[in-house]
Every structure is written in C-alpha cells, then in structure tokens.
C-alpha cells in the first residue's frame, strides 16, 4: 500500500523554487510556438496550464481549456531521451600539431544537473529501457550515464489517456511504478485542486519536506486512484505481446509488409520521437583551415537508405525492408538484445506519423494475414 | 551452443577511452594490388602495444574526413605493430591508402569477437578465404602455424578474381613452402602465364584433406562465397556449430550502441564479426535483413 | 602396358560401373597424351571426343580480343572434359590446352552414343554420371558469373 501525502496545487511553485535552490535546472512540459515542448522552466507558471492536447494518428492539436490543471496535456514529441541522449553531441576536437594531431574530448561538457518535472509513466519505462542499452551493455555510454546519475525525476501519473496511448496493455502505465524521486497525481474536485504525492527516493523525501504537505485522507487517495484507473480503462488501443517476438521472427515474408510499405514515407518520424530508439551516426568535419577537425554524434534513424549502406550498396534498399526492420527491431529482436520490449506504449509514433501508421494496427494486420486473410 | 570466442574485458562506467581514437603513425605502406594497400602502424606514444586477437577489428580515423572499420591483419604475437589491409572504395579508405610514412591517424579498438583458435586445437583446421577475406584471417594463420603441433591437418584454401588480385603473395609462398600445411590457391579467370588452379574456390574444398566430423573451419569472404562454402563444408561432414564466419555490416561505433551493424538480434561489431554459422544462419540467409 | 579398361576403372567418373559396362565404354576409348602447350580441342571444332583426364592439367580457355586467352577453369586428374551430344555433333566453344604433360582417355562420342543406344542400362549409367557433372559445372559457372570478388 503506497504511502500518500497531499498538498494543495498552489504549493507547486514552491516545489519548483526548492529545486532551483538545490542547483537543479528544472525541465518540464511547456507550450511555446504552438507546440508542447520539454524545456527549462523558470517557474511553475510556465507549465502548460490551460492547455490540453488532442492526439490521433497523424495529428496533434493543442486546445485552450478552462481547467487550471498543470498536467492536463499528455506527452509531446520530446522525451527524456532528448536530454539524456541528445541528438547532437560533439565528441571531440582534433587540432593539428606539427605532423600530428592533439585530441581534446568535449563530450562530457554539461550544465547544471536536470530535475525533470511532469514525466509520465511511459517515459519512465522508456528510461528503464535506455538504461539497459546505455548502462548495462559491454560499453557504457558516458554522457548518458553522467546525466542520468545527476537527474532528479518528479513524475506524474496520467489521469487522462489520449486516443493513441496503449501503455495499459503493456503494463507501462498510466501509473508510474519505479524510477522517480517523487510522483504526483493531480486531482481537481469542484473547488479543490490538490496533488497526491508518493515518495520514491531519499532525495525525494528531502524535497517533500520543503513544501507544505500532510498525510493524504482516504477519500483523497480514492479520488486520485480512481482517476488513474479510469485513464487506464479508457484506452482503446492495445498491443498483445504474448508470443509476439516469435511471431515476427516467423513472419519476415508476411505479405502485409508490402501494404504498410505502400503507405510509409520512410521519413523516420516514428524513430525520431520514440523514447527508446537509439540509433546514431558519427560524422567527422574539418574547418576551412584544415587545422581543426571535429567528430559529432548525431541521432539517426533506420529509415534512411544510408543506414544499411556498405561499400557498393544498401542492405535494405526497399521501404518495405526498412519499415520491417524498425518494427521487428522494436518488438522482437530488441527482446533478445536487451531482455525487454523496445516499445513503451506512449503512442508518439502513431501521433507523429504523417500518414498515421499505427503499429498496434499493423501488428494486428500481420497476424490476420498470417492466419489466412489476404 | 558453440563455444563463444574469448571476449575483451567489459569496459566499466567511468572509462570512456573507447570513444576517443589513440594516435598512431604510419611506419610503412605496401601496395598489394591495384586498389588494396597494407599499412603498418606504430603508436605515437612510445612503446605502447595494442594486444588483439585475430578476427578483431579497429576503427581507423582520418581526422576531419571519417572513420572506417578495418580488420587487424597482423601477427598477434607482435602487438607493437598494427597491420591493416585496406581496399580503396570510398573517401576515407582512399585517403588511408594514400597516407605516407609518418602520417598520423586515429585508432579505436580492438573490437569484436575473434577466431576460436583455442577451440580448434586437436582438430583439423580448414581456412577458406575469398578475395579480401584473407585479411581478417591472416592473424589466425600466423597463430596456427606458430602453434602447429596443437592442430591436426591444416588446410588453407584461397580464391580470388585473377592472379593480379592475390593478396599477401609472398606470405602464401612462404606458407606453401612449409611441409606441415597445405595451401590451395585458385582464381576465377587467368591468362596463360598463370600456372595455378582456375575455378571457384568451393571446388578446392573437394581436394582438401580433413576429417569432417573432427574439423573446425574459418571462412571469410564475400557473402555469396561464404554461403556456398558453408554448403560444401556441410557435405564434407562439418556441422553448423564448427563452421565460423566473419560477417560485415555498416559498423560505426564499434561498441554495439549506434545500431547500424545489426543483423537480426546480433550486433556484428560486438557479438561478431566472427560467429559460429549456426548462430547467424537464419538471418544471414534472409534477403534485406 | 596398361589397358584403357584398367585406367577407366580407376577414374572417379566411371566408378561403380559393372565390368561389362566398363568394357563397353573402354571399347570406345583410346589412350592419348599431350605435351605442354598442345590442344585437346579447339574452338569451333567438332566435338568428336569426350576426355577423362588421367594425369596432368588442362586449362579451359576462351579467347577474348581485349585480354587474349582467358582460362575459366583448370581440369586435372580424375576429372572429365567434353560434351556428350545426341542429335547433331556439338562444336567446341572453347579451347582446352594442356599446361603440362597430360595423359587422358579420349572416348569417341559417336561410338559411346551407339553403345548406349544398344544397351539402355549402360546408357542410364553413363547419363547419370554426365548429368551430375553438368549440374556441378552449371553451379560453378553461375558462381563465376556473379563475380563475387567485385566490390
């Protein structure tokens, strides 16, 4: 039985101030230029109060609303990946010295430690997946490790699902179960606006002491848990994972791949917004004088022809092969590589696909085609 | 499950040297064929050695231009010199093949799995190389010949396009000159001046002498060649577990992190490039995998 | 002095033939030898003989204007070279040149054909071996066509 505390919503700004006092850079959702971003917040007022998002395959709309909720929006494009595994990193600089070179590593440059506010369960699940990739493999990713260890996370249980969410079927949400220092449930009941708070770590407990709070009453807990429960039940999409890995291994030549390929633009949006996709490429540059070279690490997607290029040609020249690679990796080979599924049910790939391809529907179609449909 | 080759030490958190190239200097450059050169490198840092196991590769950097994976072709018993045989097919490899003595480049590695030389002891050892595939096998040949008594029959089978494309000509002659190893060389086409075999490399497997069920094979070359070689070896009584291949994909980081070199569930740079064929057969034989 | 029958009996292509069938095949053959540089057959000649190589080495060559004669395979001890034609005499599309002193059995194709017509059991045994030989040749030829060493 988790131990809940309660605190009025008006205390949220104090939480943000407390984080600033501890030297953290506070990063959370905010609406800027008509988009839902994940950026540095100077104060709690910069959270997307009065906004709510409407997501569907291939569409994302932000609408004004009367509700004073801080966390009414779901997840936008960015996830923790944007900060822990940035899309552009300069690995090193090489300067000519006589007949040779001098290397200056630059990849560990960093600012103040991040405190993330408003992270959803699906993104915490994504974080757990990326921990396996970057911290538990033969080689550790050093920048990810540094930022990860320094990061503080204040999560939020979702009290409303979007049409594209399917975390409930994967067991990755809407309730966050691990990986946070504090987790909040936002409750609006008539005139009352308060947060239920659960502690996830010693540092979380320390921070909680700095804002007014009290043990939560049973009816407050019931209200909060009911909201999260409803968020789970209201989800319409699902992904059945039992036997999915072997199914995809056996369906490499399933005719349905041709049908998805006819729609897929191989733009790579899905991979770019996915909180677990980790492909990246290395690029070397030289300045105009020829004296200073740099190596950059850039986020990449497996949808490009270049991705599988090897002297002479690409291994996966067709869109069919590339879409199949992405889906089969995400839902099958990933399991053999990392011991977990690559998908966390956040639904971003469905929302941000320009043609609205829904991987839950594609998996279903593959199964139906295999079972004898056309 | 086939025995896995010995892996290099896991790099623990806190170390990140594997992201940064070490500086090496070109000691010598030798032209092997029209577009293939062998570079011998020594560390800029005095006396620094680079221990490796045959089958592994390094990432070679031309600063400002790019980085490429090249297998290590040297003698593992001489880790003070790094030997890399490179074919000039792209911007970076062309640049590497033009480096003069004294030029400085970057080296990251060694990465990947190695030929299971220990596991092959007390068995017949058949090495089948096609074209540039001889380069990743050369270190294994040096090792096997230096420890000749540990193996049964040792047969080296090498095929390439024409006599002008033969790699390591002098070494092949030296190996052939020994009485305890048989070397079979063939080319696909040849002018009349060529005195050796003409025909595909898989035909030479017929002539090699080994006891199939007690043999380990190391195979490296173009994908097509490896597939057909595996089939021939199976008809001679080897099993999929005892045939080892070296695979190639677009490798960039060498660490199993950038995702480019995946073949189904394996990362070629980290779980390979040397694999028992049983481990990769399914995915290797799929198209556009 | 060894007989054609004894020599053919030891040749892998004819392994497993009964002594009666071996005798019938041997009746179509004669022992031949070629010095280095001599041709077993030449491009566009009628293919009168089918060769079983006993020792030595033969280069199978195609002449190209740009590169001169190009060997596409070498045939040695224990192997065969030639075409068994049925309807009309086949004309060689290649040269076969002995690279060193080479001994062979030359089987007259017309006589072999007649022996097979007269004894269908013999015919089947010869065709089985010939069909397998052709299948292997096709597989090899395809692999060489693919030019697998090209980058």
TrEMBL record, chain B:
Tell me the ranges covered by the FAD-binding FR-type domain, including all copies.
19-117
User: Per the record, a Pfam family?
Assistant: DHODB_Fe-S_bind
State the SUPFAM superfamilies in the record: Ferredoxin reductase-like, C-terminal NADP-linked domain, Riboflavin synthase domain-like
Cofactor note text: Binds 1 [2Fe-2S] cluster per subunit.
Recorded protein name is Ni/Fe hydrogenase subunit gamma
Cofactor names from the entry are:
[2Fe-2S] cluster
Quote the Gene3D superfamilies the UniProt record gives: Nucleotide-binding domain of ferredoxin-NADP reductase (FNR) module (3.40.50.80), Translation factors (2.40.30.10)
The Gene Ontology biological process terms listed for this entry are:
pyrimidine nucleotide biosynthetic process
Q: Which key words tag this protein in UniProt?
A: 2Fe-2S, Iron, Iron-sulfur, Metal-binding
The highest taxon in the source lineage is Bacteria
State the InterPro entries in the record: Cyt_c3_hydrogenase_gsu, Dihydroorotate_DH_Fe-S-bd, FAD-bd_FR_type, Flavoprot_Pyr_Nucl_cyt_Rdtase, FNR_nucleotide-bd, OxRdtase_FAD/NAD-bd, PyrK_electron_transfer, Riboflavin_synthase-like_b-brl
Gene Ontology molecular function terms on file: 2 iron, 2 sulfur cluster binding; flavin adenine dinucleotide binding; metal ion binding; oxidoreductase activity
Annotated binding of [2Fe-2S] cluster, by residue: 253, 258, 261, 269
Automatic annotation (TrEMBL), chain C:
SMART domains, sorted: cNMP (SM00100)
- Which residue intervals define the domain Cyclic nucleotide-binding in the entry? 13-82
Q: Which Pfam families match?
A: cNMP_binding
Question: Which lineage?
Answer: Bacteria, Pseudomonadati, Thermodesulfobacteriota, Desulfobaccia, Desulfobaccales
User: Mind telling me which SUPFAM superfamilies this protein's record contains?
Assistant: cAMP-binding domain-like (SSF51206)
Output this protein's name.
Answer: Cyclic nucleotide-binding domain-containing protein
């Amino acid at each position: 039985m988790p131990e809940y505390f309660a605190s009025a919503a008006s205390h949220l700004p104090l939480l943000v101030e407390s984080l600033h006092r501890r030297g953290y850079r506070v990063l959370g959702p905010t609406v800027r230029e008509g988009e839902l971003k994940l950026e540095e917040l100077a104060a709690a007022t910069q959270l997307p109060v009065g906004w709510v998002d409407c997501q569907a395959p291939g569409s994302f709309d932000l609408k004004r609303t009367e509700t004073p909720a801080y966390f009414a929006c779901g997840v936008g494009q960015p996830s923790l990946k944007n900060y822990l595994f940035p899309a552009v990193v300069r690995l090193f600089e090489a300067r000519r010295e006589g007949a040779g070179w001098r290397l200056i590593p630059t990849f560990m440059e960093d600012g103040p430690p991040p405190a993330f506010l408003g992270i959803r369960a699906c993104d915490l699940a994504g974080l757990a997946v990326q921990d396996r990739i970057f911290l538990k493999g033969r080689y550790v990713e050093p920048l990810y490790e540094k930022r990860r260890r320094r990061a503080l996370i204040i999560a939020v249980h979702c009290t409303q699902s979007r049409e594209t969410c399917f975390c409930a079927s994967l067991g990755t949400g809407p309730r966050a179960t691990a990986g946070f220092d504090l987790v909040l449930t936002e409750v609006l009941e008539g005139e009352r606006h308060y947060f239920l708070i659960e502690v996830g770590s010693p540092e979380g407990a320390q921070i909680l002491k700095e804002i007014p709070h009290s043990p939560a009453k049973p009816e407050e807990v019931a209200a909060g848990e009911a909201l999260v429960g409803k968020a789970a039940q209201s989800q319409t999409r699902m992904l059945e994972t039992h036997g999915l890995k072997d199914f995809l291994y056996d369906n490499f030549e399933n005719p349905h791949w041709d049908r998805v390929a006819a729609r897929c633009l191989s733009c790579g949006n899905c991979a770019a917004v996915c909180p677990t996709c980790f492909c990246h490429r290395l690029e070397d540059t030289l300045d105009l004088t020829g004296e200073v070279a740099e190596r950059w690490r850039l986020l990449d997607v497996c949808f490009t022809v270049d991705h599988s290029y090897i002297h002479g040609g690409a291994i996966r020249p067709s869109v069919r092969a590339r879409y199949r690679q992405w889906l089969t990796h995400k839902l099958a080979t990933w399991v053999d590589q990392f011991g977990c599924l690559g998908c966390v049910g956040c639904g971003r790939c469905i929302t941000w696909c320009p043609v609205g391809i829904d991987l839950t529907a594609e998996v279903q179609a593959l199964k139906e085609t295999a079972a004898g449909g056309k | 499950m086939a025995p896995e080759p010995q892996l290099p030490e896991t790099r623990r958190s806190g170390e990140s040297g594997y992201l940064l190239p070490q500086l090496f200097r070109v000691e010598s450059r030798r032209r092997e064929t029209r577009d293939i050169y062998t570079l011998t490198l020594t560390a800029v840092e005095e006396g620094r050695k680079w221990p490796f196991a045959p089958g592994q590769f390094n990432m070679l950097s031309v600063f400002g231009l790019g980085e490429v994976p090249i297998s290590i072709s040297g003698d593992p018993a001489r880790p003070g010199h790094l030997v890399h045989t490179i074919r000039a097919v792209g911007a970076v490899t062309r640049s590497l093949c033009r480096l003069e003595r004294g030029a400085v480049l970057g080296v990251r590695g060694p990465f990947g799995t190695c030929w299971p030389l220990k596991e092959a002891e007390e068995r017949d050892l058949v090495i089948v190389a096609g074209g540039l595939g001889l380069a990743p096998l050369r270190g294994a040949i040096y090792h096997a010949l230096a420890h000749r008594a540990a193996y049964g029959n040792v047969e080296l089978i090498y095929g390439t396009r024409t006599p002008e494309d033969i790699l390591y000509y002098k070494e092949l002659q030296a190996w052939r000159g020994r009485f305890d190893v048989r070397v079979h060389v063939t080319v696909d086409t040849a002018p009349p001046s060529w005195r050796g075999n003409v025909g595909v490399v898989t035909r030479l497997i017929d002539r090699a002498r080994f006891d199939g069920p007690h043999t380990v094979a190391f195979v490296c070359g173009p994908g097509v060649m490896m597939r057909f070689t595996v089939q021939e070896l199976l008809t001679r009584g080897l099993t999929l577990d005892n045939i080892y291949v070296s695979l190639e994909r677009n490798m960039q980081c060498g660490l199993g992190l950038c995702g480019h070199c995946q073949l189904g569930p394996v990362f070629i740079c980290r779980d390979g490039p040397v694999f028992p064929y049983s481990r990769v057969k399914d995915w290797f034989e799929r198209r556009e995998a | 002095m060894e007989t054609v029958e004894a020599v053919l009996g030891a040749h892998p292509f004819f392994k497993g033939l009964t002594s009666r069938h071996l005798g019938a095949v041997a009746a179509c053959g004669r022992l031949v030898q070629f010095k280095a540089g001599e041709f077993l057959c030449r491009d566009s000649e009628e293919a009168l003989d089918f060769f079983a190589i006993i020792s030595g080495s033969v280069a199978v060559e195609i002449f190209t204007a740009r590169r001169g004669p190009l060997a596409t395979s070498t045939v040695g001890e224990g192997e065969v070279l030639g075409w068994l034609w049925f309807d009309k005499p086949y004309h060689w599309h290649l040269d076969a040149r002995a690279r060193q002193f080479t001994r062979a059995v030359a089987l007259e194709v017309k006589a072999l054909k007649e022996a097979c017509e007269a004894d269908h059991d013999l015919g089947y045994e010869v065709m089985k071996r010939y069909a397998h030989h052709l299948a292997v040749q096709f597989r090899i030829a395809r692999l060489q066509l693919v030019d697998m060493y090209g980058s």
